[in-house]
Specification:
Length: about 350
């Protein structure tokens, strides 16, 4: 989690980068941007940093060759931290690197801001950071100006909404030997999104309690939603019950233990064996660290709770929300109507 109450914007350079596959180009500014207006400085700080206030996932730079020094952003960031006078020149190199990997036809052109900050707090540590931000989405704004006898309306096209940062990352001058601490924002979440994190930055997620909790809940959800059907005949109501039990376990426990979780939540010996095999396959493939007990992250539980669905959808007529005892709902089949039905028991309407 990032806080920036004491942070200051030290330097900023602005460049423009196009889509290489569309024969667009890049444009580099000659100097850093001079900001004298304190209101503008404050707005830029809000635009750049406020999206990271609720970011908990911490990444690290990596490279396919296992030589971290071959990662361009790690290399340029190291040089900037060691020699701040090289900032503007290296900001141009960062722009060229982004241009060279912008080969997907759906990648939008836009302005690239590279900035340095002092005294940003991450995980209780006050450190300097480098920010790389890209604005792609432009909007139109109306302006209302008072004039004699009333008001006048004007507009501004192709303006930037400072509450909507398209893409960004903060690179913290901390734990360099492990690939720095890096936090990422990517609001596009479309087919072109992977290029920012995977190709431009080349990141791997840090294997901490937040990530382990987040990943384990994801594995549980995938197993219950999609994999348990392979071996067991299970109703959607029973699946929702298992999802609710899983979330309840993570909300009430301080730490995760796969044996304890399996016994308390899944229960059925054959299903437990299937779940453990599924977890092991995932753990072996991604080295996720799920085979050992770990402390549960409340922030990760809160994040996953938003996507753990407890809704039973019946055709287009009814949605049943199952939050508690699944024994109060029974499934059956009506021969006369040739339709399935659910019987729901309750004490009073609300």
């Amino acid at each position: 989690m990032v806080t920036y109450f004491d942070a200051t914007l030290a330097k900023i350079s602005v460049h423009r980068v196009g889509n290489k596959s569309l024969n667009e180009f890049y444009s580099l500014s000659e100097n850093t941007l001079s900001i004298e207006d304190e209101t503008l400085r404050r707005l830029l700080m809000q635009y750049f940093l406020s999206p990271f206030e609720k970011s908990y996932e911490v990444f690290r730079f990596t490279h396919s060759s296992d030589d971290i020094n071959l990662n361009e952003l790690f290399h340029f960031s190291t040089m900037i931290f060691e020699d701040p006078s090289s900032f503007h020149e290296l900001s141009g190199q960062i722009t060229k690197h982004l241009f060279n990997i912008s080969n997907h036809p759906k990648i939008k052109s836009g302005e690239l801001y590279i900035a340095t900050f002092k005294d940003i707090q991450l995980e209780g540590e006050m450190v300097d950071a480098i920010g790389v931000f890209k604005s792609e989405t432009k909007e139109s704004y109306l302006k209302v100006n008072p004039e004699e006898g009333g008001f006048a309306l004007t507009y501004e096209e192709d303006a930037i909404n400072i509450t909507k940062l398209d893409k960004g990352c903060l690179i913290f001058n901390s734990e360099k030997d492990q690939g720095f601490k890096v936090i990422v924002i990517d609001q596009t979440n479309r087919t072109d999104a992977a290029y920012w994190k995977d190709e431009f930055l080349q990141l791997k997620i840090r294997n901490d309690n937040f990530n382990k909790t987040n990943t384990t809940l994801g594995v549980c959800k995938e197993f219950i939603t999609n994999k348990i059907d392979d071996q067991f005949d299970i109703s959607k109501a029973d699946k929702i019950d298992l999802l609710n039990k899983s979330m309840k376990y993570f909300k009430e426990k301080d730490s995760f233990d796969i044996d304890e979780f399996s016994e308390e939540v899944i229960g059925n010996p054959k299903a437990i064996e299937s779940f453990k095999n599924f977890s092991k396959e995932y753990n072996d493939e991604f080295d996720a660290g799920l085979d050992q007990p770990f402390d549960i992250s409340n922030a990760a539980v809160k994040k996953q709770a938003k996507i753990f669905k407890s809704i039973l959808k019946l055709d287009k007529n009814f949605h049943i929300y199952i939050h508690g005892n699944k024994d109060l709902i029974e499934k059956g089949y009506d021969d006369d109507k040739s339709m399935n039905y659910y019987k729901v028991f309750f004490k009073e309407e609300q």
